[in-house]
Specification:
heterodimer, A: about 210 residues, mainly alpha, Arp2/3 complex 21 kDa subunit ARPC3, two-stranded antiparallel sheet, 2 strands, about 75% helix, about 5% strand, B: about 90 residues
Chain lengths: ~210, ~90
């Protein structure tokens, strides 16, 4: 879902750069206060895992591929603020080191994949596990992943509409349609990764969120 | 950190598995193709390893995967350093 430069109009990407800087600065300040020594490797390893998993594109229907985004998984394990920080670092390094995603639109990419991914993933997971209980963890993780990707795609589509690239009536169904399928992959990987970590290292799932 | 090594190892292996990754256009790219706005994409900005390839070396899936594996360790190191700086600064402020 990495947007290249040129797709978004300057007012749209500039506003999202400002928004992303603000949210990431807030996250860094909030995380700093509660960061314990045990969280440092957690942030680093999850960042590396999300970076690596994003490289493995899997084919979906209609000659299209998708890849894991990771915002929901990070938010479930670390809490939403630390997740936004990790996602911002991953997306920024992809852009700066590997030219994956444009540089003017870096704020937009951090916003769509990192901020929305973490906040939606966190909200959906917490809501379901509170409502139904811990036994709903796999379903909650799946839905958190699916919803986080769908809302990231929705935000991307709305930014394209605001930039005058495509009309809402065509770009919204197109973006949501293809990402509804990629989202199944996101949901499955989120649930599987969480289950794997919970079974090999249960203490990591119980780690205090920052 | 000891508890985290296996997950870092899984991440590096995962980056290596990207030699079998699909090269089909992703969700946004395929929408851009269908709605004919791919030509709006600007030429990419300058970066040290553009598209996970070493400039000057012939790009191949193996090279991309190797860059990805090293990149995974680099992301780990940078994130670790950043988190440590944040934790140190918080400790100083207290």
């Amino acid at each position: 879902m990495h947007i290249p430069d040129g797709y978004l109009s300057p007012p749209v990407w500039a506003a999202l750069d400002v928004a992303a800087i603000g949210v990431v600065a807030y996250s860094a300040r909030a995380v700093k206060k509660r960061l314990g020594d045990e969280h440092i490797p957690a942030l680093a390893v999850l960042g590396a895992f999300i970076f690596a998993a994003q490289m493995v594109q899997f084919p979906v229907a209609g000659g299209t591929s998708g890849h894991f985004m990771g915002g929901a998984l990070a938010a479930i394990l670390l809490g939403p603020r630390a997740a936004m920080l990790v996602m911002a670092v991953v997306v920024a390094l992809q852009c700066l080191l590997f030219r994956d995603g444009g540089i003017m639109v870096l704020g937009a990419n951090i916003f769509n994949m990192g901020i929305i991914g973490a906040l939606v993933g966190h909200g959906v997971y917490r809501a379901i596990t509170r409502l139904i209980g811990e036994r709903a963890r796999p379903a909650a993780a799946f839905l958190a992943g699916w919803c986080s990707l769908m809302l990231g795609a929705l935000a991307t589509a709305l930014q394209l509409v605001m930039s005058g690239v495509a009309s809402a009536i065509v770009v919204l169904p197109a973006m949501l349609g293809v990402h509804a399928v990629i989202g199944i992959g996101e949901g499955l990987i989120t649930a599987a990764a969480l289950a794997a970590i919970a079974s090999i290292r249960p203490e990591l799932v119980r780690m205090e969120r920052v | 950190m000891k508890r985290w090594w296996p997950i870092l190892l899984v991440a590096v292996v995962l980056a290596g598995l990207s030699i079998w990754a699909s090269t089909l256009p992703d969700g946004l790219e395929s929408v851009a193709e269908a709605l004919h706005f791919t030509e709006r994409a600007a030429p990419g900005h300058a970066s040290p390893l553009p598209d996970y390839a070493v400039p000057g070396l012939e790009s191949s899936r193996w090279a991309n995967a190797l860059v990805g594996m090293l990149g995974t360790l680099l992301v780990f190191a940078i994130m670790y350093g950043l988190a440590r700086v944040l934790a140190r600064r918080a400790a100083v402020e207290k």
